[in-house]
Design brief:
18% helix; 5-stranded antiparallel sheet; Immunoglobulin-like; 130 residues; alpha+beta; 4-stranded antiparallel sheet
Length: 130
């Protein structure tokens, strides 16, 4: 009887582990030398925003002038420069579909910029060095 319970428990744990490993196999792999961009929630402008939806910042990594999107989410990407008086100028803008895994930023951008990612009615901002 104990052997049967032990076998059942072991089989259950093995099946759970197999499912977890299989599920992780479908996740996109981050770039090897990528730099994670950290975002803060800057603004909420609900479009219709689900009242119980969790607020989760998108996962973006940078390698040179290429941004890698680790989530399958539709979003808008804005890159702003900031002058000495803290005035922002939009330097680059694009829509990113949920199937897009990377975006190549223009090579003529260099320096420190504000990166803004808009997902639904949530505006996330961070800093990027190009």
């Amino acid at each position: 009887m104990k052997a049967n319970a032990l076998f059942t428990r072991t089989a259950f744990l093995a099946a759970t582990l197999l499912i977890m490993v299989s599920a992780r196999a479908w996740e996109p792999l981050p770039p090897v030398a990528g730099v994670r961009i950290f975002f803060s929630l800057a603004d909420i402008r609900p479009e219709p925003l689900h009242p119980h939806a969790p607020v989760v910042a998108p996962q973006v990594e940078q390698v040179g002038h290429t941004l890698y999107f680790l989530d399958e989410t539709e979003l808008f990407l804005n890159i702003y420069s900031v002058d000495e008086e803290e005035n922002e100028t939009l330097e680059y803008q694009t829509a990113v579909s949920s199937s897009t895994t990377s975006v190549q930023l223009p090579d003529d951008l260099s320096g420190t910029y504000i990166i803004e990612v808009v997902v639904g009615g949530l505006y996330f901002r961070g800093e990027i060095e190009l």
